[in-house]
Amino acid sequence: MTIDLAFIVEALREISKVIPLTLFMTITPVLLGIVIGIIVAFVRIKQIKFIAPILNFYVSFFRGTPIIMHIMLVYFGLPMLVDMMASTLQLKIQSSTIPILFFVILALTLSAGAYASEIIRSGILSVPKGQLEAAYAIGLTFTQAMRRYILPQAFGQSIPNLTNVFIGFLHATSLAFFLSIKELTGAANIVASVNLKFLESFIAVGIIYWGISIVAEWISHRIEKRVTAYRKGGFSS
């Protein structure tokens, strides 16, 4: 058995057509997840009554169960909820009109939010408490102190772990093929099935995944170098 190098190049060309969709399915949930993570982290740190226990359950559930289950729960459960509400409120909405991609993005966003919240929470807790006290001493409010000093430092601490989340969810997009969304792994499966050259197809898609991961790590390193300047002076202007 020999590896068809020419076909790997051809497979790369064909599979790379779905890179934009795969990146959209990765970047969107991660960015939205970071926003959710910041909110959840604040609520859990402040231990807000009634809300904190609910968010503790949310984080525990989504971190403790596989992403494929989240996708399936949203894909099968949300349409039932939408149809039930439409029927009750007499709305002209049908779950069948909702794109499948929306269910995948929603499920991945909820999962990313749970992971990001723990990363951001640990980043905030890693900042010395004296930073917040010093901010109060110069007349800043809690929100101002968090926005100007605590969060930038916490974000700098969290960048490597957030990069790992990005790469993990890049791989998790392959699960969308279960719902017939043609992302990188799905495209590789189709190319392999048509040409019966599975090894070459998956070598090609592996190269693409690896290449995207290398670029993500490079960008992460550049951002980290800029953001971690906050660590040096704390209250530098």
Structure description:
The structure is a single chain. This protein is mainly α. The protein has one domain: MetI-like (MetI-like fold). It has ten helices and no strands. The chain has helices at residues 5-15, 19-46, 51-64, 67-89, 100-126, 129-137, 142-172, 184-195, 198-227, 230-233. Helix 2 runs antiparallel to helix 3 (51-64) and helix 3 crosses helix 5. The longest helix is centred in the middle third of the chain and has 31 residues, at 142-172. The termini are far apart. The model has no long low-confidence stretch (mean pLDDT 88). It is a multi-pass membrane protein. Residues 19-220 form the ABC transmembrane type-1 domain. This is Amino acid ABC transporter permease.
Which architecture would the CATH scheme give at its second level? Answer: Orthogonal Bundle
Q: What count of helical segments does DSSP give?
A: 10
Order of helices and strands: HHHHHHHHHH
Rounded to an integer in angstroms, the radius of gyration calculated over CA atoms is: 22 Å
Number of domains: 1
The first-level CATH class is given as Mainly Alpha
Determine the N-to-C terminus distance. Answer: 64 Å
Spans with pLDDT under 50 lasting ≥5 residues?
A: none
CATH superfamily: MetI-like
Membrane topology: Multi-pass membrane protein
Family: Belongs to the binding-protein-dependent transport system permease family.
Domain ABC transmembrane type-1: 19-220
Protein name: Amino acid ABC transporter permease
